[in-house]
């Protein structure tokens, strides 16, 4: 019995989709199995008394504390305080850093004027600027927001400048010869060309901004996740301290995922297609066989 070409194509699609599903399921299972196994091992070791539970409480106790703090609203208040400093600082730093990077990328004068200064300032730990900011603005929210903004600024400035500099000079010359300048040059040449580098900088800055805002809250705040971690350590409440650490990790992961979604929306040609639908899409786009 001879199978028709259409039947062979359908069998190939089913086999490819089945293999893609197995691979996707294996990837998800492997990614979940490692942390689950570590938590289970930690729980078992803690219950057997092999470690001091005063220092390393079992995960079950930590998650019970997390549920209790989330239930009474305490954890939500700390998260809201951290986000209230993180969001404006991240936005201001990203906007000013990317615009500065674009200006330095297209203007040799601006690049030569500010390049050495930014190179010197970049090497200064951003948390070290907090005492100066506190001296200028006092014990307000402004120094905490500015500490985040300064961190994000330098990451975006460096990445944007690198993205603009890697654009082919002939493309910029052609755009200028056709009258592109100012906003038109930014929109149609610089943004598409430097977009991947800018979004990479946004993802890098997301993690760094979380670290900086938590460090700032250690020493200059009475609220926020950093305060929760530091205060729990001071009062010797390790389960609450681990709740803060887990929440900080989740916050950083969510911010990175949000930037990844923005990248997928702005740069769809760089997005990685889900393996589940890749073979099906390839077959459907293939030309039909001739009879």
Task: Looking at this protein, list some descriptive labels.
0% strand; 79% helix; disordered C terminus; 291 residues; mainly alpha
Secondary-structure topology with pairs:
Blueprint: H1 5-48, H2 59-71, H3 74-106, H4 108-122, H5 130-137, H6 142-165, H7 169-177, H8 183-219, H9 225-234, H10 238-266, H11 278-285
Distance N terminus to C terminus?
Answer: 18 Å
Beta-strand percent range: under 5%
String of helices and strands: HHHHHHHHHHH
Number of strands: 0
Instruction: State the share of residues found in helices, binned by percent.
Output: over 70%
Query: Helix- and strand-based class?
Result: mainly alpha
Whole-angstrom Rg: 25 Å
- Overall shape: flat
- Average pLDDT, to the nearest integer? 81
Number of helices: 11
Largest sheet entry: none
